[in-house]
Amino acid sequence: MNTASLLSHLSIVLVRPKYPGNIGAAARIAWNMGIENLIVVGDQLPEREAMAQMATHKAAHLIDNLRFFTTLDEALAPYSIIVGTTARRGRQRIIEQSPREMVETILPQIPNNKIALIFGPEDSGLTNEDLKHCQLISAIPTADFSSLNLAQAVAIHCYEIYYGIVHSQKDMLPTPKLASSFELESMYTYLEESLTRIEFLGKKNRTYWMNNIRQFLTQRKLSSKDTNIIRKVCKKFLLNYRM
After folding, report:
1. What is the pLDDT of residue 154?
2. pLDDT value of residue 204
3. With 0-12 CB in 10 A as exposed, 13-18 as middle and 19+ as buried, what is 234?
4. Structural domain contains residue 92
5. pLDDT tens across 28-55, in order?
6. CA distances from 141 to 7, 83, 87, 104, 148 (A)
7. What is the rounded radius of gyration, in angstroms, for the C-alpha atoms of the chain?
8. Chain CA centroid to CA 168, Å
9. In three state form, how does the secondary structure of 13-59 look?
10. How far apart are the first and last CA of the chain?
11. Same domain as 197, residue 224
């Protein structure tokens, strides 16, 4: 695959952005690095002109073609690899990587998978609920003050991805297609219900154990077939198990 084809597998997802100008700035940056897929998640999409002003006329088509969703679950459904970005270092169960390390990890997965990079609100970042969807966490190492502007964070990640693809694609050994977020979340729903039925999960420990289960299964790099098997086992269990 050529560079443009590989970049077409990537999407920038802005979750609940507060300022329309940052959406436009992100579009401008993405277009400069060859990424054309822009997604916004929020209560409502800002007016086009407020976003397009920062995008400039060269990236205005990304604003016109961006996809808008009211929930992150819906936005991420088609994606197999989801990378969350955060400035809150050391607080996640998923191992954090720098943008450059993250790119090295995902490069072999780009040819056969759709990949989403998600960025949280400017004032608070992604929540733990947002991050549960992610297989990877990327944190930008800084000398001191760690809070970067949303557009700056998008720029650093887009540049590292573009640079990595341009300089590494000849040596890239693609990995198989993985399960989509929709398939994974469906599997986790049945798995959580089954573990609740046998009282393995309670009100107090539910989040803790489900986060650990998600982390464990993420490391297995599940395929669509894998998630389907687990989901069917759980469905059969729920139909036949009696308290």
Report:
1. 97
2. 85
3. buried
4. yes
5. 999 999 999 999 999 999 999 999 999 9
6. 24, 16, 9, 16, 11
7. 19
8. 22
9. EEECCCCHHHHHHHHHHHHHCCCCEEEEECCCCCCHHHHHHHHHHHH
10. 53
11. yes
Asked whether 42 and 70 are in contact (CB, 8 A), the reply is yes
Q: Which residue has the tokens 């549960």?
A: 132
How far is Cα of residue 163 from the mean position of the Cα atoms in its chain? 20
Q: What is the pLDDT of residues 121-180, one digit of tens each?
A: 988 889 999 999 999 999 998 887 666 899 999 999 999 999 999 988 767 778 899 999
Tokens of 13: 């997802």
Residue 176 falls inside a structural domain: no
Q: What is the pLDDT of residues 197-231, one digit of tens each?
A: 999 998 888 989 999 999 999 989 999 999 999 99
Q: How high is the pLDDT of residue 26? A: 97
Strand partners, 67: 39
C-alpha to C-alpha distances, 2 to 141, 165, 168, nearest whole angstrom: 30, 9, 11
Q: Which residues of 115-154 are buried (b: 16+ CB within 10 A; e: fewer)?
A: bbbbbbbbeebbeeebbbbbbbbbbbeeeeeeebebbebb
The answer to whether the beta carbons of residues 15 and 73 sit under 8 Å apart is: no
Residue 76 has pLDDT above 90, yes or no: yes
**106 shares its domain with 214:** no
CATH code of the domain in which 214 resides: 1.10.8
State the residue range of the domain holding 234.
181-240
Decide: pTM greater than 0.85: yes
